[in-house]
Design a protein that fits this description.
seven-stranded antiparallel sheet, alpha+beta, about 170 residues, elongated
């Protein structure tokens, strides 16, 4: 119940900013929505060509067969707009951080191969840059495309040692 109250307060806080046209924009990431990951962002105009994008996502779900990719991530980004804010091309600098817990997931292209057979839990932080474009669709609707690259430092506790110890204890019984 407490989590629902916090989520309601968070959504209400961001929804109340809709009163300021072209000063604040509320947004969501459609890719994250398709993956059923809770996400919400707000972009605040700082000057004619600068904005601050505040974005967070939260994935509390477990999947079948002990698969899991739980996370809470926050990413503030300072953006410079080449035209006016909320319109056209922009570049950005972001920092990010959060906590995660992942297990039994086969990542594509050989990324993090240990994740398929082990569980990792920890936190991460990092920084990066981005480039994007925003199209004005209607008076209160924009569509944004964004691509970024960055670095993340991850600290984790690996459950491999605990699994080996458990297997050894079972063999000795």
């Amino acid at each position: 119940m407490k989590k629902k109250r916090i989520l309601f307060l968070f959504v209400t806080l961001f929804a109340s900013t809709l009163l300021y046209s072209q000063v604040v924009g509320v947004k969501t990431n459609l890719v994250m929505d398709a993956m059923k990951i809770i996400n919400l962002g707000a972009e605040v105009g700082l000057s004619k060509k600068l904005t601050l994008d505040l974005y967070a996502n939260y994935n509390p779900w477990k999947y079948k067969d002990q698969k899991m990719m739980k996370m809470l991530a926050i990413q503030p980004e300072l953006r410079y707009w080449f035209c006016d804010k909320f319109n056209g091309h922009f570049v950005g600098f972001h920092v990010h951080g959060g906590v995660y817990q992942a297990a039994a997931i086969n990542m594509p292209w050989g990324i993090w191969p240990e994740l398929k057979d082990h569980r990792f839990k920890g936190n991460f932080f990092g920084a990066g840059i981005s480039y994007g474009y925003q199209w004005i669709l209607a008076k209160h609707w924009n569509l944004e495309g964004n691509i970024g690259v960055g670095y993340a430092s991850m600290s984790s506790s690996n459950a491999r040692r605990a699994v080996r110890r458990l297997a050894k204890d079972i063999r000795t019984i």
